[in-house]
Design goal:
The complex is a heterodimer of chains A (110) and B (115).
Chain A lengths: L3 E3 L4 E4 L4 E7 L6 E7 L6 E6 L3 E5 L2 E6 L4 E6 L8 E8 L6 E2 L3 E6 L1
Chain B lengths: L3 E4 L2 E4 L5 E7 L6 E7 L6 E7 L5 E2 L8 E7 L2 E6 L8 E8 L7 E2 L3 E5 L1
Parallel strand pairs in B: 2-11
Antiparallel strand pairs in B: 1-3, 3-8, 4-5, 4-9, 5-6, 7-8, 9-10, 9-11
The chains are: A mainly beta (110), B mainly beta (115).
């Protein structure tokens, strides 16, 4: 059974702080990893994709992948109240359906 | 960026009605499309995977005769909820992928309410 595990939260951080979201996965064959943001009542929106070990930065977001540890993380710098949402970690290999974690709810307190 | 359009956004209808939801990839050819269902405060549940020109692959527990999926072209997939009942009320979301190792891009979802 392929699984992606996330802490459900809520993770509360003050405005301006760094939010750190973590994810582990069970399938060593997974090659592609994605972070999605989902606001309440809306569909998921892609934030970051990462395919190789190391860090990938895009604006205030940094994704980190460690395939040896089967670990993916997302850092959000200078967190804003508008970042409050559920963050979904997902992985797959090839064209297979994404395996999603249950999501971590982030709350940024003004 | 890749855009997936889903229509309609909201549907309210009587029990026993069949409802069709369309999912279109607007600026790329979708080799594969996926249909999800999400109940309030719960995680996404994959219902089925569809590839253009072939039968959809349904996840365990999803009734293929109730949730009819047609993937007629590389840019269009439809989900028909046949003889819908109140327990089918949910948020239905499609996603599409343009190729191997590409991210899935989601439509805006369809909120279905069966009275």
């Amino acid at each position: 059974q392929k699984e992606v595990e996330q802490n459900s939260g809520p993770l509360s951080v003050p405005e301006g702080a760094i939010a750190s979201l973590n994810c582990t996965y069970s399938d060593r064959g997974s090659q592609s990893f994605f972070w999605y943001r989902q606001y309440s009542g809306k569909s998921p929106e892609l934030i970051m994709s990462i395919y190789s070990n190391g860090d990938k930065e895009d604006g205030r977001f940094t994704a980190q992948l460690n395939k040896a540890s089967q670990y993916v993380s997302l850092l959000i710098r200078d967190s804003q109240p508008s970042d409050s949402a559920t963050y979904l970690c997902a992985g797959n290999s090839g064209n297979t359906p994404l395996v999603f974690g249950k999501g971590t709810r982030l709350s940024v307190i003004a | 960026g890749a855009v997936v359009s889903q229509h309609p956004s909201w549907v309210i209808c009587k029990s026993g009605t069949s409802v069709k939801i369309e999912c279109r990839s607007l600026d790329f050819q979708a080799t594969t499309m996926f249909w999800y269902r999400q109940f309030p405060k719960q995680s996404l549940m994959l219902m089925a995977t569809s590839n253009e020109g072939s039968k959809a692959t349904y996840e365990q527990g999803v009734e293929k005769d109730k949730f009819l999926i047609n993937h007629a072209s590389l840019t269009l997939s439809t989900l028909t909820v046949t003889s819908a009942h109140p327990e089918d009320s949910s948020f239905y979301i499609c996603s599409a992928i343009g190729g191997v190792a590409q991210p899935q891009h989601f439509g805006d979802g369809t909120r279905l309410s069966i009275l």
